[in-house]
Design brief:
The protein is of the alpha+beta class. Helices cover about 50% and strands about 15% of the residues. The chain contains 4 helices and 3 strands; from the N terminus they run H-E-H-H-H-E-E. It has a 3-stranded antiparallel β-sheet with strand order 1-2-3, covered by helices on one side. Strand 2 and strand 3 form a beta hairpin. Helix 2 crosses helix 3.
Length: about 80
C-alpha cells in the first residue's frame, strides 16, 4: 500500500471571517528553519538537492501564518519528501 502525498490529501478551504496574521508563529518558524535545513542537508542530502533544484527557498518564503478565532493556522505550500 502506497501512502499518498500530503499535497494530494489536503482539502483547501478559505476562511476569511476573523482571520488575522500571526507574526509570533511566523517568527517561530523562521527561527526554526535553519535547524530544519540542517537536518535535511545532513540526513536527506539527495532530497534536499532535489528541492534546491526546484527552488524550495521560494516555496518556504511563500508560507503564510495566521489565526482565526484565536486558533493558530499554519498554512504553507506543501512539498513532498520524495
Amino acid at each position: 500500500m502506497e501512502v499518498p502525498l500530503l499535497s494530494e490529501s489536503i482539502v483547501e478551504r478559505s476562511v476569511t471571517e476573523m482571520y488575522k496574521p500571526c507574526p509570533s508563529l511566523q517568527k517561530y518558524i523562521h527561527d526554526l528553519f535553519p535547524y530544519i535545513q540542517k537536518l535535511l542537508v545532513s540526513d536527506f542530502g539527495e532530497i534536499y538537492e532535489k528541492h534546491q533544484a526546484n527552488n524550495v527557498k521560494e516555496t518556504w518564503s511563500a508560507m503564510q501564518f495566521g489565526e482565526v478565532c484565536n486558533t493558530i493556522l499554519f498554512i504553507l505550500c506543501c512539498f513532498s519528501l520524495t
